[in-house]
Amino acid sequence: GNWLGMLGGGQLGRMFCHAAQSMGYKVAVLDPAAECPAGVVADLHIQAAYDDAQALDRLAGLCAAVTTEFENVPAQSLERLAQSVRVSPDSRSVAIAQDRIAEKSFLARAGVPVAPHAAIVQPGELEQAGNELFPGILKSARLGYDGKGQVRVASRAEAIEAWEAMGRVPCVLEALVPLASEISVVVARNAQGQSVAYAPSLNEHRDGILAVSTVEPQAPKSAQAFHQAAARIAQDVAHALDYVGVLCVEFFVLNDGRLVANEMAPRPHNSGHYTIDACISSQFEQQARVMAGQPLGDPSCLCASVMLNVLGDVWFDAQGELREPDWTRVLGVPGAKLHLYGKAEARRGRKMGHVTVLGATLGAAREGAREAAAALRIPFDV
Ligand code: ATP
Ligand code: MG
Ligand code: MG
């Protein structure tokens, strides 16, 4: 088996294809779209629904192992695949990460600090929620990403109104916590239980979407303690899940210096894209290595980097007309590495690509990122 399988044809699948193919593996992608970022670079694109039994069996028959690039893949699909092929991460880990209620209680049971919260499933649970949860954020338990499916609520009355407006879907109500910063850690863990953690990235969000990730090989003195703690917690979480594959854990660093886990993603993560250009082995290479049963790669980070997400907004000028961004100017920035995902149509808020600017020092990487951001007319104030 030289074939590796991917459920989902988005940009994470595409970057996986690149990494796996460069090591000589062939990749089969299952995605219902005729043209998708991973489908067009895969060795085989099986165009079918994620729950198409025949397509799943074909993928399982072809591949040595199968993974997924998005959380919301139907659990039954993973279970069907698992009957005949190695699936990593397993459906249990994915199920926990798919559901904020399960995720929060799993983290709390594993001894990982989380923000004060309550599960809201039944009418009445909002009436009984503790006062310490207001002001808070009401987050749908399922299907939320990039800040979608969540509402900030100042009071209990607002929360009740918001929950009604959301159609009373299961939610987590979380206290709004005072953020000093947000960081995330990507870990890779193999079937033998060995794991490696990447240098944490410092993340800045805009409108609920990751905008900028900054990473230094060596954290500044003031951040070393919580970077180490975050890396340890992320590896502990992977161990507690008996996780096989690549996992990302997002953290809040609170104003008082405490670290709380926010959520996890059972796959490579947007904040880990810097690993493609700045690390010995990228998060996608690790994913391929783990699936193929090969040794874990070296996660060492070789230089400082600043990653800018490139959203579809960048294609619209001040008049709202579509025009191609100035890639020549971006590519002219010292240390800039451009990654475009091959999406046909630019839409506002849609992730179209990213630019990682590398530097011998963080200052140099920031200077380059400022130039790249100016070329793309993205605000940059890091
Ligand atoms: P992702 O795209 O990362 O999966 P998501 O839609 O699942 O995003 P969260 O990560 O839960 O959403 O929240 C999005 C952002 O909202 C966080 O990165 C943080 O900036 C802010 N946020 C979320 N929860 C809280 C909280 N309890 N207190 C303060 N800020 C919060
Ligand atoms: Mg999320
Ligand atoms: Mg998040």
Automatic annotation (TrEMBL):
A Gene Ontology molecular-function term? Answer: 5-(carboxyamino)imidazole ribonucleotide synthase activity
Q: Decide whether keyword ATP-binding is in the record.
A: yes
Function per UniProt? Catalyzes the ATP-dependent conversion of 5-aminoimidazole ribonucleotide (AIR) and HCO(3)(-) to N5-carboxyaminoimidazole ribonucleotide (N5-CAIR).
Q: What class of enzyme is it?
A: ligase
What protein name applies here? N5-carboxyaminoimidazole ribonucleotide synthase
Question: Is this entry keyworded Ligase?
Answer: yes
Pathway noted in the entry: Purine metabolism; IMP biosynthesis via de novo pathway; 5-amino-1-(5-phospho-D-ribosyl)imidazole-4-carboxylate from 5-amino-1-(5-phospho-D-ribosyl)imidazole (N5-CAIR route): step 1/2
- Cross-referenced Pfam families: ATP-grasp (PF02222), PurK_C (PF17769), RS_preATP-grasp-like (PF22660)
Please state which protein family the record places this protein in: Belongs to the PurK/PurT family.
What gene is this protein translated from? purK
Q: Catalytic activity annotated for this protein?
A: 5-amino-1-(5-phospho-beta-D-ribosyl)imidazole + hydrogencarbonate + ATP = 5-carboxyamino-1-(5-phospho-D-ribosyl)imidazole + ADP + phosphate + 2 H(+)
